[in-house]
Write a structure and sequence with these properties.
Structural class: alpha/beta
Low-confidence stretches: 1-7
Radius of gyration: 19 Å
Strand order of the largest sheet: 1-9-10-8-2-7-3-4-5-6
Mean pLDDT: 86
Number of helices: 8
Number of strands: 10
Strand content: 15-25%
Shape: globular
Largest sheet: 10 strands, mixed
Length: 273
């Protein structure tokens, strides 16, 4: 006879998702790195920003719903974690395609997190860091809301002079960072370090995140598994968590924590050095 497994048996750090309004318990959880290995780009340099990726996935691995947006597979628990991780971040990294699909603007200063950010010496809103080799981002959309700064990383080979001039005019010269060829994760992290960033959240999309993980540039993966089976409407275009990654050599992960609100699973995974 099969006996149901209690969720607390899956990992010793299992705990109920805290219900406190100020999210102090979640803040402590995500600031606890006592068991987390440092990513390959950290070496012994404690001044390098800590990079955590935050993604939501269905049980069958879809990272967006049928509308190609992650919000349609999210949940109240996922939104709480999303808010807390942004509240801890000095900067939020996102690829240009995801920024367009999810309709990103400048990031907002949240009143409920203002005191904590002030105590940590952080700006009122995180810096939005866009990665677009061609520099094709919706500048008008960015300015529709929010108050945080924006930095764009692009390739000099693919972002022509006219586009570069337009970007500099709207964002400022120091906010447009040009790379000789590909936009390497190490260079982005070094730029964020120069700007005084210590806590960084990477929000994808899957192709960009896959590159960063292959380069050893992510220290921690925060994954919310929504209790959904989304299916793959187009087998030729699967919406996987690490789209674009060959998968020839699996990446081993170590479970750092697991919390639940009864259905959604909120996980933290440490990545190898």
């Amino acid at each position: 006879m099969n006996h149901p497994i209690e969720l607390s048996q899956l990992h010793p750090d299992h705990r109920p998702l805290p219900a406190t309004a100020d999210e102090a318990d979640l803040v402590r959880l995500y600031l606890d790195r006592s068991d987390a290995p440092r990513g390959a780009l950290h070496d012994a340099d404690s001044a390098r920003p800590w990079v955590r990726a935050n993604m939501v996935s269905t049980v069958d691995g879809a990272v967006t719903g049928a509308d190609d947006r992650s919000g349609s597979i999210s949940s109240p628990a996922d939104k709480r974690v999303f808010s807390v991780l942004r509240s801890l971040a000095d900067a939020v990294i996102v690829g240009a395609g995801t920024a367009r699909a999810e309709r990103y603007t400048r990031l907002h200063a949240k009143t409920r997190h203002a005191d904590q950010r002030g105590d940590r010496g952080q700006d009122a809103a995180p810096l939005l860091v866009l990665v677009s080799r061609s520099g094709q981002v919706d500048l008008d959309r960015l300015d529709e809301a929010g108050s945080g700064g924006v930095v764009l990383h692009a390739s000099r080979e693919q972002c022509g002079p006219a586009r570069r001039a337009e970007l500099v005019e709207q964002l400022g010269e120091d906010s447009v960072v040009l790379h000789d060829a590909a936009v390497e994760p190490r260079a982005v992290i070094d730029d964020l370090r120069r700007r005084g960033c210590r806590e960084v959240v990477h929000e994808g999309g899957p192709a960009l995140l896959g590159t960063w993980i292959e380069k050893g540039a992510v220290d921690e993966l925060c994954l919310t598994t929504s209790p959904l089976l989304a299916g793959v409407p187009d087998p030729q275009s699967p919406r996987g968590l690490l789209d674009g990654r060959s998968g020839d050599v699996p990446v081993p992960l170590s479970l750092l924590s697991l919390v639940t609100d009864g259905s959604a699973l909120i996980q933290r995974w440490g990545l190898p050095t």
